[in-house]
Amino acid sequence: MRATGDYWNRPDVVTAFATASPPGYLADIVPQGGPGAVALDVGCGGGRNLPLLAERGYRVVGLDLHAEMVLRAQGVAPGAAFCQADVAALPVANARAAVVVCHGVLHNLPRPEQVSAAIGELGRVVATAGVVSLNLFSAAHLDHRLTPLADDRHRLPNGQVMTLLPPERIAALCRGAGFQFVDGPFEYLHDADPGQRSVWRAVLRPTGTR
């Protein structure tokens, strides 16, 4: 998949993501890592989640599609490993990660089938006893300044296209990928540009029947 646009490599956007704090709930989700345990931040952006994962004792790997994001994240977490990669085709072995974080990423994929493929990839790379923290924008609240397109896609005023799926469809995709819900799913409004977005988030664990 091609990069989702020059927007994510802009210096101001990279800086905003690098200086943002991790969500408060992430510290409650991530357990202490055992020897050799791997944590993936899929769509790591500027690296805001990486220090917390490292502090919990994990070998941290940051993956992002956008080169400038990866470059900035390397400065935020110099002890981590990095790879420029597509969330729908992760260069990670099956069941490799004890923890997978994927925050604010999947709605940026341009088509619903790519969102489905990406959720399947999260299910493939997480260990059987592992945990996934997932959040993405949903269609539960649609700002009037978004232009609706076909197939659950919406165009922002800046030209970016997002895929905004109904919450029940996101949950169904997670179950279809072999996940059970440990916490959530939850929905809440988040200030965005423009207006507000509805955020869907959940903590997931493989069912063991993948």
Keywords:
210 residues; alpha/beta; 3-stranded antiparallel β-sheet; 6 helices
Structure description:
The protein is of the alpha/beta class and 210 residues long. The protein has six helices and ten strands, in the order ααβαβαββαββββαββ. It starts with 10 loop residues before the first helix and ends with a strand.
Indicate the proportion of strand residues. 25-35%
Low-confidence sequence ranges:
none
Q: Radius of gyration over alpha carbons?
A: 16 Å
Q: Give the helix level as a range of percent.
A: 25-40%
Mind describing the biggest β-sheet?
Answer: 7 strands, mixed
- What is the structural class? alpha/beta
> Strands of the biggest beta sheet: in what spatial order?
3-2-1-4-5-10-9
For the secondary structure, the number of strands is: 10
Q: Using the alpha-carbon principal axes, give the shape.
A: globular
Mean of pLDDT: 92
Helices and strands, in order, run as: HHEHEHEEHEEEEHEE
Give the termini distance in whole angstroms.
25 Å
Number of helices: 6
